Amino acid sequence: MCGGFTCSKNALIALNILYVVVASILISVAVYGQASALVTNLPIVGGILACGVLLILISLLGLAGAVKHHQVMLFFYMVILFLLFLVQFSVACACLAVNSDQQQLMAQEGWNTVNMDVKEEVQKRYKCCGFQSRIVPINGTADFPSCNAIDRICCSNMEITPECWCQPCVENLKETIDSAFKLCGGIGLFFSFTELFAVWLARRYRNQPDPNYIEPHAIFPRKNYLY
């Protein structure tokens, strides 16, 4: 019946298979978040990626414990999964709490640390020039590559004039980073609560007796019996 040993076992196995799928989604989203912002260092998104990898390993442990009804495996599965819930919940909330100013600050720090080749790749991808301004300081050097090739794209190969110049990259980067943070935070927050249910289900299943378990009995030859 539902709630019995077999039902709990099948539910736990199905839930861990789902976690493998969820972990794959988390890894894919985190990789997208890292790749979509070339000039930024996103440690929070990296935390989502680490949670996804760890969730796959924990799911394999849970599958093995559920199939074998192994008490030790299920115990460590519950403990590690609860700790993962705390980490994933915290990281997801941090992703959703990052505001626009913090996003711009991270983008600025990333822009200042990468080399010109990366900046050129960003300008080509987003069709922009410079970070906050494309104006070169007097008696100074530009902190971004030449925008002549990008301006030809923005001006549709027409005569390059200030009216059709490519705009600075800051707005495009902020929009991309914002979408990556919201996507990572939303998915991480939603699936973190299912981990609490998995902890409860594993505890319930661990305490249920196996109806197919046969207790071992010592069998001695009759010649060894004492009369």
Features:
227 residues; mainly alpha; 7 helices; 0% strand
What can you tell me about this protein's structure?
It is built from seven helices and no strands. The two termini are 48 Å apart. The mean pLDDT is 76. The longest helix has 37 residues, at 170-206. With 227 residues, it is mainly alpha-helical. It has helices spanning 5-36, 43-68, 71-97, 100-113, 116-126, 148-154, 170-206.
Total strands: the figure is 0
Beta-strand content = under 5%
Rounded mean pLDDT score: 76
H-E string = HHHHHHH
Poorly predicted runs of 5 or more residues: none
How far do the termini sit from each other? 48 Å
Major sheet characteristics:
none
Label the overall shape.
Answer: rod-shaped
Residues in helix, %: 55-70%
| Protein structure class | mainly alpha
Gyration radius (Cα, Å) is 28 Å
What count of helical segments does DSSP give?
7
Task: Give a quick rundown of the structure.
The chain has seven helices and no strands.
Topology:
Layout: H1 5-36, H2 43-68, H3 71-97, H4 100-113, H5 116-126, H6 148-154, H7 170-206
Helix pairs in contact: 1-2, 1-7, 2-3, 2-7, 3-7, 4-7
